Each structure stands twice: as structure tokens, then as C-alpha cells.
Automatic annotation (TrEMBL):
Keywords: Protein biosynthesis. It comes from Papaver somniferum. This is Ribosome-recycling factor, chloroplastic. Residues 259-296 have a biased composition (Basic and acidic residues). Belongs to the RRF family. Residues 253-296 are annotated as: Disordered.
Length: 296
């Protein structure tokens, strides 16, 4: 501010000094009485106008300098305080991450429910069973073809060893399963895994496949399965609520860098997402309980 004020004072002094000159031109113009005075009048008046224009120019210069000075002061203020923080919209990424967590919880629930026994046969009952050997474990659906013959029967056809030789070699199970005899299949390991499972099934060998009859469920078994479904549903809803709380905590941390209206809107969207996935979880569990309690 010191430089603009000093320039303003100098300009003001010049204005004060030039003002009498303009008045002298007016006086000489009024008091003129001879013919030769017209030249003097024109000269003095022109002289006065010239200095009037000069004074106006100086006044404009003063205003420009003052304006420039204030502009520089504002820029300096910004440079002292630092640039304004940019508002970052965390909404899209936060909603995507929260939705992914809730969706993953539901996918895990769907997989778990498919493995529970009902009064109807399904491939999901045996797909997850592991064939245990001294060298490792293999998932049944990777070495067997599983199909549903009817509402009460499952067919399991183990692959021939020459078809799974490369896979078994990678898992170092060649010696365990004795693939030197290509007529040998995984029949025995698969049969043992089915008998030892908690499903209560008794497979029967039928040529190169296993026939697995699904016995009807007792009332006690149905109730036990429904409890498992309810427990799984509560665990998933708890995971969904944790994902919601994590998102709310992130919103609170961003309260200093986002408008309040945007924060409230984002929090409302997260709550709606929580309600949506919780409702979907309840529907999945109810459908599974109905399937368990329904007759074959």
C-alpha cells in the first residue's frame, strides 16, 4: 500500500499546482478588451485546456495506480495464506468401494447357502467337497462331472486318470493315485470323501460313476439347517453394517473439505445402499428356508 499512496500524493500535488493555470485562462478570457487579445485568449484557453486534459490524465493514472496496488495486495495475501484447498468429490469412489464390500458379502452368502442340504438334489451339495490325499486336497468339481438325475439323485463321474494326468502331475499326486494304470480312476478317493461328508449320504458305485441318493430330511434336520441359514444371514448383515460404518467414518473425515449438503446427500445414499443389501440378504435367507422346508 505504501507505493500507491506515495504515487497518489504526488498526483494530487500536480493537480493542485495546475488548477490556478486553468483559472488564469478563464480570467484572461473574460477580461480581454482588444482585438489582439483573441490570440492571447485562444493561447491561454488552449493552455488551460491542455493542462486540464493533463490533470484528468493524472487523475486516471492515480486511479490506475491505486487499483493496481490493491490488486497486488490481494495477490500477496493469497501467496501468504496459500492457495485455496480444492474440493475433492469422494462420492463416486466411496459408493463404489462400499457397494463392492456389500456385494462380496452377499456372494459369500450365496455360495454358503448353495452348499446346505435341502429335500431336493443339487450339484452345490457336493461341489465343494475335498478329496483328501497324503499329497494334498482337490476340490471334487475339478476332477468329477456332477449332474442331477432327478429330484432325489445325483450322478458323479470321476475323470479317468489320463484325462487329469497333467493336473495331478502339477499337484504332485501322481504317485499317490497310481496313474501308471490308465484304467484306474479317482473312484475310491471320491467315494470316501462323500461317505465322510456331513451330508449323511451313501454313494453307490454304478460302473464308471457314483450314484448318490439324497435321503429325505427329518424335521430336526430341517430346523437345524434353518438355524444355519439364519446365522449365515446375520453374519452377512453384520458385514454390510460394517461396510456402511466404514463409509460413514470416511464421510466424517472429509467434513472439512466438502459442503455440508454434499455430505448429507452422500450419507443418505450410503444408508439407502445399506437398506438395499440388507433387504436382499433377508430375501435370500427366506428363500433358502422355504426350499429347506418344502417337500421334495
Amino acid at each position: 500500500m505504501a507505493i500507491p499512496l506515495r504515487r497518489g500524493i504526488i498526483s494530487a500535488r500536480k493537480l493542485i499546482f495546475l488548477k490556478p493555470t486553468f483559472r488564469c485562462s478563464e480570467i484572461s478570457y473574460i477580461s480581454s478588451s482588444n482585438s489582439n487579445q483573441s490570440n492571447v485568449i485562444s493561447e491561454t484557453s488552449l493552455f488551460g485546456i491542455h493542462h486540464l486534459e493533463s490533470s484528468n490524465q493524472l487523475g486516471l493514472d492515480y486511479l490506475k495506480e491505486c487499483r493496481r496496488g490493491f490488486a497486488k495486495g490481494k495477490k500477496s495475501k493469497n501467496s501468504d495464506n496459500g492457495s485455496a484447498a480444492e474440493v475433492v468429490d469422494i462420492g463416486p469412489s466411496l459408493k463404489a468401494n462400499t457397494s463392492a464390500l456389500m456385494e462380496a458379502a452377499q456372494v459369500a452368502l450365496s455360495k454358503e447357502l448353495s452348499q446346505l442340504r435341502t429335500n431336493r438334489a443339487s450339484t452345490g451339495l457336493v461341489d465343494h467337497l475335498l478329496i483328501e490325499t497324503s499329497s494334498g486336497k482337490i476340490s471334487l468339481n475339478r476332477v468329477c462331472a456332477v449332474s442331477v438325475l432327478d429330484a432325489q439323485t445325483i450322478s458323479i463321474s470321476p475323470f479317468y486318470c489320463f484325462a487329469v494326468f497333467a493336473f495331478l502331475l502339477a499337484l504332485r499326486l501322481v504317485r499317490e493315485l497310481g496313474v501308471a494304470n490308465r484304467s484306474l480312476t479317482l473312484m475310491k478317493p471320491v467315494e470316501n470323501a462323500l461317505r465322510e461328508s456331513p451330508l449323511g449320504i451313501n454313494p453307490k458305485v454304478d460302473g464308471d460313476r457314483l450314484i448318490v441318493p439324497i435321503p429325505p430330511m427329518t424335521k430336526e434336520t430341517m430346523q437345524a439347517m434353518c438355524k444355519v441359514v439364519a446365522k449365515a444371514g446375520e453374519d452377512v448383515k453384520l458385514s454390510i453394517r460394517r461396510a456402511r460404518q466404514k463409509a460413514i467414518d470416511t464421510i466424517k473425515q472429509a467434513s472439512s473439505s466438502m459442503p455440508k449438503d454434499d455430505l448429507k446427500r452422500l450419507e443418505k445414499e450410503i444408508d439407502e445402499m445399506n437398506k438395499k443389501y440388507s433387504k436382499s440378504t433377508e430375501d435370500m435367507c427366506k428363500a433358502k428356508e422355504k426350499e429347506i422346508n418344502s417337500p421334495s
